[in-house]
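User: Could you write out the 3D structure of this protein bound to calcium ion? I've included everything you need below.
Assistant: Certainly. Input first, then the structure.
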Amino acid sequence: MTITDAVGKFGSAQEFRPYKKDKTVGTVVGENIPNGAIDDEDLLFFASNMGVDTTDTAWNQVSKVDINYNGVIDAYDLMYVAGQLGKTPLIATGRPIAGLLDIRPSKQQLKAGEEFSVEIIGVGLQDINAFNLELKLDPNKYELVKECQASGTCDSSIVQPTNVTKGMLNYSILAGIGNSEQRIMAAFSHKGSQQSLEGKNTVATITLKAKKDIDFDMPITSSLLVNTAFDSIDKIGEVLIPGEEPGEID
Ligand SMILES: [Ca+2]
Ligand SMILES: [Ca+2]
């Protein structure tokens, strides 16, 4: 029986996912494709299930990968798998976690058909190894725009990384397609051991189009920062106005 280091350091999880082994194939905590080991194939799960929560009919099938027991497949769950992969497995730095994620639209008053962007800005980040941020998207008011190159190839993700996050896994997804309420789930994690995110940085951008004349009114509905020891912060940051600098955090 093996328990990884990370399991012993779940400071904020209410319970531990027990290691299970059945009579045929041993399945390891966090595995989606059970072959007895966490491998790159187990990451594929997150491509279609990021943001799935307890309200989803698929929840029973995916809940075993909800490592932090918060009722949603999120960056913590992704990092639990991704941290065991890569050239060097993740090692906790021992530094305390800090930070918040704010958002800032490029325009406040939007005209029908107008494109604009929303920055996700990390503030006071310390030792951050994974994050997610969820925005509620009313499909009557907004639609996502995919960034396309001059060559005609368009980005596969709905959320674009920046210079500080381009080396991270990006499993951002639009959840609830076809529903009256959709959710943009921006979700990033380092794979294995990489330089953590620090200080104030724009960590991702989302390009949107207004469908009618409106004031930007998209709320942050959830936020999560995870450090290299799997400590997390779920406090929701601020919605800034265009040009506004984030305030300092405690
Ligand atoms: Ca596997
Ligand atoms: Ca979770």
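The helical segments are 5-8, 41-49, 59-62, 75-82.
User: Perfect, thank you.
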